[in-house]
Batch of 2 targets.
Target 1
Amino acid sequence: MEEKPKIVVTTRTRRPETTAKQFAFTAAMVPGGGALREFRQHAWETFNRLSLPTTAEEAWRRTDLRALPADQFRLPEDGLYKSLPAVPGELLQPLAADAHGGQIVLLPGGASVEFTESLTRKGVIFTDLRSAERDHPDLLAKIMGAIVRPEEGKFAALAATLSQNGVVLYVPKGVSIDQPLHSILWGPGEDLAHLSHILVWVDEGASVTYVHESASPDKSGAALHAGIVEIKVADGASLKLVELQSWGRQVWNFSHERAQVGRDANLDWIFGAVGSRLTKNFSDLDLVGEGATGRMSGFYFIDGIQHLDHDTQQNHLAPHTTSDLLFKGALKGSSRSVWQGMIYVAPGAQKTDGYQANRNLILSQNSRADSIPGLEILADDVRCTHGATVGKLEKEPLFYLKSRGIPDKDAERLLVEGFFDPIMQRISFEGVRARFQQAIHEKTAAE
Amino acid sequence: MSELVVKNLHASIEGKEILKGLDLTVRQGEVHAIMGPNATGKSTLAYTLMGHPNYRVTGGEVWFKGQNILELEADERSRLGLFLAFQYPVAIPGVSVANFLRTALNARRRATNPEDKGMPIPEFRKMLKEKMELLKMDSAFAGRYLNDGFSGGEKKRAEILQMATLKPEIAILDETDSGLDIDALRIVAEGVNALTGPNLGALVITHYQRLLNYIKPQFVHIMLDGRIVESGGADLALHLEEQGYDWVREKYENGESGK
């Protein structure tokens, strides 16, 4: 039989998805009674008023949501987690010490809370959002929405109005918690909208370490996470906050986060991201009290078609404030990262010391990192510096390692680990470092 | 006993031929020195033998342990027992000397047994401590980033430490004396001498005779324009020290131009 020549016909048609789909949530889904009724109602109106962001907006210029299947997401009903894969045991291991002072697991349609009673007696609150609504309505009404407002964007409004899940951590004045607290947002399932609201309030002179982790298994289809993280570090208080993101590759992930740091207070804020299909994260550090200090350390490693967009703001709103940001990322496959950072120094915020740096390591020809630092300085006696780099693995170090018998893959992994080492040095928790080393191992070993 | 046999090796970089038919045999237990003026191809020889991707082999063979190693990647050549002490070791920020050496050792173990779990850490620490004492190195060295901010002497000592750890059968030392003051040179040479013996064959590449006051070769070769033109015993190096390279140039370059 003779072989027929193959005929390939290509036609150019415009893709139908020129605008994003719309969410299918309804007013009836907004939780009714309780202390947060007004807040949620207002957020619902805001959610309806705001449209999905498009690339015409500066903050979203590099992150396109036209493929977001917004109409297919539904809220998980109560108890849904029982029919979904359970949290893997390794996620429940303490990351920041040998033991934790408390652990919360947020699940689709449920939550579980474990908390040391001695801390409850000191007035510490560490519980899930629904329990907090029931047990601490006045506190919640006071602090919810005080730092991140629903007006900040479609996804902020969505999380504000419909969050079924969340964590409330309140540390009263002068209380210092030695054992780290740990929460996990576990989001298995398809077509689900995981909405979360995290409130961290560390009152005057108090101190705590808190690790929050979001994760889900890789699945086909799509899932959504929209979250708010509101952080208050009151005068003289100190907070170490670690956020780890290892969403499955089907997850569209959005978060609005802001920390308000008071007089002589200190925040050590760590971000780690290896997951999701697409992430857009806004993280603002507001140094509102004289002598406030904030450090933001980020590490990310993405591959495949992952897209990670992190917007950071270091707002120096009072004199003698210090901020120090270092974000480092590696990219493989056709992945893309965006880091857009701004140091803002308000008029009168003299003696400010601000630093920001973003370093990227490109491991494949098709990946791309955009790194956009920015300074806006309205005071005259300040010191602000920044740096941004995008580099590739160099040939000579690779040859050097190979000449010692180390195969290509291992040599690449060693160089990637070396690249991340300065950021790992900032993380005092062995468990967090080990979790990221594991991700480096898996991602460098993959084709 | 293994030997490295170079036959009629031709190699070029960016289209320019540097090695023009080089022959050489180095056996385990022997110390050879290659001397020659600048830009004669000495470093090209070192890099080509180790398999640097910038150098293109255009002819010849290099036999080691029954294989023509020109077909192997650099890491395979290393695991076979070949070693290059670099003239300019590159800095690897973020990777400690200890972490690097353990990865290199474990790569060897895994190549022979894919199931190998790696050398246990206490055993590795003990081994590293012994090697570092042998080379009179401070133990803090193991925790420093590899070659990052090292002085010239520290870099060269780190190369010898790697050689001591990886136990090659044939080692090429490329201008190991460059950039060293006399004290550093003595320490590095002592390190090399502590390692040479029946199990190690060394090919010492140098521009100056002074290194050979410390590392005594049994064989000395003179390289000129991509080839070895004279071979002899230790006295050949002394002859060069006294006479310089001019007589070699006259003898061979004039000879060629007369062709």
Note: Residues 97-112 of chain B form the longest helix (16 residues).
Target 2
Amino acid sequence: MILSLLISNKIEIQHLDLFYGAKQALKSVSLSIPEKSVVALIGPSGCGKSTLLRSINRMHDLDPKVRLDGEILLDGHNILHGNTNLNKLRRRVGMVFQKPNPFPKSIYDNVAYGLEVNGIHDKTRIRAAVEESIRESYLWDEVKNDLDKPALDLSGGQQQRLCIARAIAVEPEVILMDEPCSALDPISTAKIEALILRLKERFTIVIVTHNMQQAQRVADFTAFMYLGELIEFGRTSAIFEQPNQELTRNYVSGHFG
Amino acid sequence: MRWLFLCAVLVFLLCCFVFWDIASKGFGVVSLEFLLTSPRKGMTEGGIFPAIVGTIYVSLVTAVFVIPFGVATAIYLSEYARDTWVTRLIRAAIRNLAGVPSIIYGLFGVAIFVDGLGMGPSLLASGLTLGLLTLPYVVAAGEEALRHVPGSYREGALALGATHWQSIRTVVLPVATPGIVTGVLLGLSRAAGETAPILFTGVAFYLRYVPSSVWDEFMALPYHLFILATQHHAIHQVRPLAYGTALVLLGFVFSLNLMAFWVRKKYSVYGQQ
């Protein structure tokens, strides 16, 4: 209660159920995500954390077997409503995937892509946005002379930072990250974590992670999920140091997962 | 295991023998003059220029028809169609189309294009008939190529606010293009060697001129070969010319296959990640 008085919530998830065919993958999940903060979703494999993340930009719409009930309010508007414009929603809610997935295009074209599909064709404006986004993603010094080279020639860590640059180029409000470091080495991971801490000044970030140290390093708030349910949500320090639930304590202390 | 190996060697030797037989008997005939002049004196002398041009032209007409229809069908089946009994029926129909004997296509071409639509025997009617024959190959190759495009590319595009069609046009299709081009070239190479579908729909026994529009009749390498080998009044005298024609046809088909191979090698982006 005190929290919600101090900070306005960017996203309010209310009683969200998600079904894959007959199987229920999310069970009445309710969660408030404060603006310009980092929220980590943790829990064992199959607990529904990625599924919850992908509900926020409606990526499940690609799968006809998925059914969603409940509400996800973005600035107070329910994005699960049938007349939501998905393209506009996904411009506002960007996503970075588990495996770096730059397009087989040049570095420049990768970052320009989101602007172009959103109807921006002013070359000067695109060039400025591309440069700014790559700078913001701590990648500029490494690629500034190679903007025309194929993005697939970059290292895994560079590719992931490029994907972050691509996501922020369209100036979203929220960035969803689905285990963005799980395919990367420790040095690349450290760079991306530093980047996340900087990006939260401008964006609301929701990150799924398997790595508890990572959650503690980057997240202001942490949600622990288990078997499709949200078990506990609170300040990261509270979740890791004084959890209210037995299940949370067992998980964060490494007893299972 | 030894006899399996021997079988494989036998097949290889048979291939070599066919090629060697044609190449050795045809090589002496093929010259610049053979390639660039028309047949003379009741086809007992001269070259096969009109047949070469006719085969290239009819392949072009085929390509112009089959590329848009084949690729559009592949995109629909791979990117839009849900898995229902209707789409399964469409897929089964396309697969079966690939097994229809080519003479049936010829008959169909006469009924629909030559007579039904009043095109008369022409490059257009033959090209469309060969297009139908090639269609299942192009659709199957196109679908295969589109399916190989990693889902992560589609998700990446959609997550940036691209519409479904934008993601297909700007990300999925460019990645699938080498595979699609390969399928088109292989389909065309099969079409270029076919005789039956063009037999009734536009190919001519002998023409002094090369076609000047799609409404003209044309000569073609496989049919010319058929004439020289079986229908000519002096079969033994023209046998070398037949071998020369066979060699040129083989070269044409072989270079299409080589192009397909090259495109796949050079432009394929699969497996780079």
Note: The domain at 2-100+172-252 of chain A is CATH 3.40.50.300 (Rossmann fold).
